[in-house]
Design brief:
The chain has 103 residues and is mainly alpha-helical. The protein is elongated and about 45 Å long. The structure holds zinc ion (ZN). Zinc ion binds next to helix 4.
């Protein structure tokens, strides 16, 4: 899974016209919201691939630390069905819902 993401990220990075644009590009273009350029779309996909990769790496760390499958919120076990759907899940459904609401 991590290898897949690494591959997607490097492909996407190769497609980007400006490789060093970095995080947080300016948001001062008032009417840029109506039409997403190809570069913006790639940037968005790349961003989500990166954050997914972070989740996967965190899950791998938890496997090393023998805490994989435990909720980082309440310490309870994450149901197996949830781990099958989201192998990188770090919280049980209840804690994830609380965490998402807080953001
Ligand atoms: Zn929990």
């Amino acid at each position: 899974m991590r290898d897949d993401l690494d591959r997607s990220i490097s492909i996407l990075q190769g497609e980007r016209p400006a490789p060093m644009s970095g995080e947080g590009y300016p948001q001062d273009s008032a009417d840029a919201g109506s039409t997403l350029s190809e570069a913006d779309r790639t940037e968005a996909i790349l961003h989500s691939a990166r954050s997914q990769r972070d989740e996967v790496l965190a899950a791998l760390d938890r496997i090393d630390a023998n805490t994989y499958g435990r909720c980082v919120g309440c310490g309870g076990e994450i149901p197996e069905g949830r781990l099958e759907a989201r192998p990188d899940a770090s919280r049980c459904v209840g804690c994830q819902a609380k965490h998402t609401r807080r953001r």
